[in-house]
Amino acid sequence: MKNEKIQTLHPLPGKTNKSIALDKYNFIKEHLLKALGKKQLTHTELMEALYSRVKDKFEGGVQWYGETVKLDLEARKIIERTTTKPEKYRLKTTS
């Protein structure tokens, strides 16, 4: 059986992101969204939270997959960056 893939998106117009295994995408996405929960995190905090959640359960580069999926979630407007310094990530509110 062939592994299903997903073509991830990039938030910057004209840029393309990677095609990755759908199961890895869903696993990382779930943990990124849980890490953000009700709080805003800097890029470093988000990647550290992701790593601590999945390091023993994920095969592959956690940081690389984390960055790829994070960019996709930004492009799909599921998460967003704040305009504060330092930039933080948060779940996008649906209002």
Structure in words:
By secondary structure, the protein is of the alpha+beta class. It has one domain: Arc Repressor Mutant, subunit A, CATH 1.10.10.10. Helix content is 43%, strand content 16%. The longest helix has 15 residues. The model has no long low-confidence stretch (mean pLDDT 94).
Record keyword descriptors for this entry:
95 residues; Arc Repressor Mutant, subunit A; 3-stranded antiparallel β-sheet
Structure summary:
It is built from three helices and five strands; from the N terminus they run E-E-H-E-H-H-E-E. It has 95 residues and is of the alpha+beta class.
Which range best describes the helical content: under 10%, 10-25%, 25-40%, 40-55%, 55-70% or over 70%? 40-55%
Rg value: 13 Å
Instruction: Tell me the CATH topology.
Output: Arc Repressor Mutant, subunit A
Secondary-structure-derived class: alpha+beta
CATH class call? Mainly Alpha
What is the H-and-E element order?
EEHEHHEE
Work out the number of β strands: 5
CA(first)-CA(last) distance: 41 Å
CATH architect. name: Orthogonal Bundle
Q: What is the H level of CATH, i.e. the homologous superfamily?
A: Winged helix-like DNA-binding domain superfamily/Winged helix DNA-binding domain
Query: Which overall shape is indicated by the principal axes computed on the Cα atoms?
Result: globular
Number of domains: 1
Count, helices = 3
Q: Largest beta sheet: what is the strand line-up? A: 3-5-4
The main β sheet shows up as: 3 strands, antiparallel
How much of the sequence lies in strands comes to 15-25%
